[in-house]
Amino acid sequence: MKKGFDGEKYEKFSAPQQEWGSKVMNELGLKGGEHILDLGCGNGLLSSKLAEKVPNGKVIGIDSSSSMLEQAEKHKTGNLEFLLCDITDLGFENEFDVVFSNAALHWVKDHSLALGHIYQSMKNSAIMRAQFAGEGNCLNLASILQDAMSSPEFKDDFSLFKWPWYMPGVEEYEHLLAESGFEDIRVWMENADRNFPDEESYVGWIDHPGLVPFISHLPEDRAALFRDHVVREAKKIAVQEDGTYFEYFRRLNVYAVKK
Questions:
Q1: Is the peptide bond before 16 cis (omega within 30 degrees of 0)?
Q2: Contact (CB, 8 A) for 256 and 115
């Protein structure tokens, strides 16, 4: 069983992420000359669309997964660059007009540190526009994962495991943004509940990216057992009478300005 992020597999099953990100991107009102930082660019599909919208500007997509960036390089264009980089260690200063992020920031645990680096990377009057998993996201899958990890069969495997996601509420994130120096702050939660059309798309989404941090924590034989257990139990909860598979999705939307 392959461990870690797989850029090719992610692209195959990333329809929800692409839909959410395209909507946010189309709301940016870009003029064509902006310098844009795409945080957690993943397979680079949205980065390439951003680059098309700024023919006289530039887009830099960053991700901490080399496999994701290998896939992203397939979408590279003249004004688009990809860098292997962690969001909590950006190293840019007064460089970007727009910081964009879609379906990525819930993977970051220390948002005070991340927001400090993001703020530093932005020019004055630049905007940050992000969307990521918020409080109440993926309740079905989260419940299955927590039950599995605490079960007699797997509890010893996960005794030292740390939950991989940070999914805040609106007020909590407003406070973090204000503490980091941002102004004109708007944070809101969006209901994006989804019925996956079939078992393949649902299980593909569970496998990638949902199970990645859990599978990566386990040895090969235990990883396969855990994966099969989670998928089996998740399908029982998610399947609907019409053959679709349901999951709760809550997207935390962020708009903030560096004055």
A1: no
A2: no
Question: Across residues 242-254, what is the average pLDDT?
Answer: 98
Q: Which two tokens stand for residue 126?
A: 């630049």
pTM of the model: 0.92
Each residue's pLDDT tens digit, 21-62? 999 999 999 999 999 999 999 999 999 999 999 999 999 999
Question: What does the alpha-carbon distance between residue 145 and residue 49 come to, in Å, rounded to a whole number?
Answer: 34
Cα–Cα nearest to 213, from 112, 142, 153, 127: 142
Helices (H), the chain: 7-12, 15-26, 45-53, 66-72, 111-121, 139-150, 170-179, 199-205, 212-216, 220-238
DSSP letter assigned to residue 13: T
Helix axes 111-121, 170-179, angle to 10 degrees: 50
Q: Is 180 exposed, middle or buried (0-12, 13-18, 19+ CB in 10 A)?
A: buried
For 61, the 3-state DSSP assignment is strand
> Which structural domains are found in the chain, ordered by start?
7-257 (3.40.50.150)
Identify whether the C-beta of residue 10 lies closer than 8 Å to the C-beta of residue 210.
Answer: no
Other residues' Cβ atoms within 10 Å of the Cβ of residue 139? 13
